Amino acid sequence: MINLDDILNVMPMSIKEILLNIEHIEDIQEIRLKVNKPVMLQISDKEIITRFNSTSENIKTILKKMSNYSIYSIEPELKQGYITINGGHRVGICGNCIIENNTVKTIKNVSSLNIRVCKEVLGCSDKIMPFILEDSNVLNTIIISPPKCGKTTLIRDITRNLSNGTKNLQLMGKKVCVIDERSEICACSNGIPQLNVGLRTDVLDNCPKSQGIMMAIRSMSPDVIVCDEIGTYDDVKSILAALNCGINLITTIHGFGIEDLKSREVFKEVLENNIFRRAIVLSGKSGVGTLEYVYDFTKNTLIRG
């Protein structure tokens, strides 16, 4: 499902007309704008270079509209290099970085924008759910996938299913806390999720995973913690703390399969202690979100694939 209204509303008329006349606009993934360069679109696996050159005024207009004409109000997000707008669309920003105390304070003289079009695919996790449940209990699961193969879309829909419950699997709704470090799972705008992540889901938006997991443990009493793209020792320590509190975990990581995990030193303790019960491995071989296989860590074997 895709709704471009929130993107079209912030565009100058000249760029809006281009988008409205593009074939297969329903398959759009990215809109890239650079000062004095052609507007570029990613439509599925096809790149389209338009004849319209963006100007600095175009980009200023877009930023003003995205911030409701208050650039100051989005400075906390600007220093992260992106903002999330209504509809859950994420806008990457490049320009002149203002540094203070060795950290980025804000970005000025913005010269390029990358608008990543948000799509939620309700029901895309329905076939996966039986593999991450056992007697209606949630199994600790890691989703392994290369970039742009649907892992964030999948984990979002898993969150929705866990939070709402699924009658056909006799799963009662769970209290879920999402640690959304890069605002990609829930696509919060002003702290409010723009996407359907379920009735019982709480969100710590723009929060480092290692800190957010501990905050959730202390204050939100979740049944399940969901986070995206773990990869540091601090992440792993926080995961171990959550599991010691009886909280289940659903997470993702960039990779191409189980062997990727085994080759990374940071996950040695996780694998040795059988922290994860299941791995869902995705690829793009037959389109975004292709399920390669499901792996059971306790049995060291494939259960689908």
Short summary:
It is built from 9 helices and 18 strands. It is an alpha/beta fold.
Topology (SSEs and partners):
Blueprint: H1 5-8, H2 13-20, E1 28-34, E2 38-43, E3 46-53, H3 56-66, H4 75-78, E4 82-84, E5 90-100, E6 103-116, E7 133-134, E8 137-138, E9 141-145, H5 151-164, E10 176-180, E11 188-189, E12 192-193, E13 201-205, H6 209-219, E14 224-227, H7 233-244, E15 248-254, H8 258-262, H9 268-272, E16 278-283, E17 290-296, E18 301-304
Parallel strand pairs: 9-15, 9-16, 10-13, 10-14, 14-15
Antiparallel strand pairs: 1-2, 1-6, 2-3, 4-5, 5-6, 7-8, 11-12, 16-17, 17-18
Index terms:
2 domains; globular; alpha/beta; Rossmann fold
Let me know the number of strands. 18
Q: What's the total helix number?
A: 9
Mean pLDDT: 90
* Category by helix and strand content: alpha/beta
Tell me about the biggest sheet? 8 strands, mixed
Provide an overview of this structure:
This protein has two domains: about 5-115, 2-Layer Sandwich (Beta-Lactamase), CATH 3.30.450; about 130-305, P-loop containing nucleotide triphosphate hydrolases (Rossmann fold). Helix content is about 25%, strand content about 35%. The mean pLDDT is about 90. With about 300 residues, the protein is α/β, with parallel strands linked by helices. The chain is globular, with a radius of gyration of 20 Å. Strand 4 and strand 5 (about 90-100) form a beta hairpin. The protein is built from nine helices and 18 strands.
